[in-house]
Inverse folding.
């Protein structure tokens, strides 16, 4: 293992790329506009109460939308939903991202995508600004367990499945 006093961001990026993750779509609703983006910066925080953390880049349109709305939904994708993961990673107008995507809504009003592994509907209880990202801690207010399906996995900059 090599070390350095000034860590090379490219080595960091390559190493993190070797670490497989699941893929989620984080959605929110600000006023009457739906926002959403593909995310793998997501961490389960605690069971009591159920809570999780999502990391959103300052550059993402969804980031200020979550900061304003104080709610979000984490939709966990199946391997069948790769095209949704690809679309929500693009820089598109919010309306374009949600075009023809089957969804429903519950209490917060944010989009819950049909056919996912499940969804956690959260209200923001803490927010931290770290470098060029905002970390939002969400307490789960409603949850849905969806399809018992193969999860979508991101590894070495590619989508794959288990
Ligand atoms: C597999 C994958 C994981 C991603 N994870 C994150 C993430 O955790 N946080 C983030 O801010 N962006 C992440 N992105 C990038 C966003 O999806 C992308 O910047 C998106 O265009 C932002 O959309 P918005 O500007 O409409 O919010 C990821 C992209 C991919 C393909």
């Amino acid at each position: 293992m090599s070390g350095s006093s000034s860590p090379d961001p490219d080595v960091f990026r390559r190493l993190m790329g070797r670490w497989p993750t699941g893929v989620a779509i984080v959605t929110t609703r600000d006023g009457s506009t739906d926002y959403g983006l593909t995310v793998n910066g997501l961490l389960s925080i605690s069971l009591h109460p159920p809570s999780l953390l999502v990391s959103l880049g300052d550059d993402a349109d969804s980031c200020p939308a979550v900061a304003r709305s104080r709610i979000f939904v984490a939709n966990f994708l199946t391997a069948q939903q790769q095209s949704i993961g690809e679309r929500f990673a693009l820089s598109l107008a919010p309306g374009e991202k949600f075009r023809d995507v089957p969804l429903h809504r519950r209490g917060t009003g944010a989009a819950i995508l049909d056919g996912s592994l499940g969804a956690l509907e959260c209200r923001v209880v803490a927010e931290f600004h770290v470098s060029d990202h905002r970390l939002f801690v969400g307490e789960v207010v409603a949850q849905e367990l969806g399809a018992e399906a193969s999860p979508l996995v991101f590894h070495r900059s590619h989508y794959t499945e288990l």
Residues 23, 35, 37-41, 55-57, 60-62, 89-91, 154 surround flavin mononucleotide (CB under 6 Å). The longest strand covers residues 118-130.
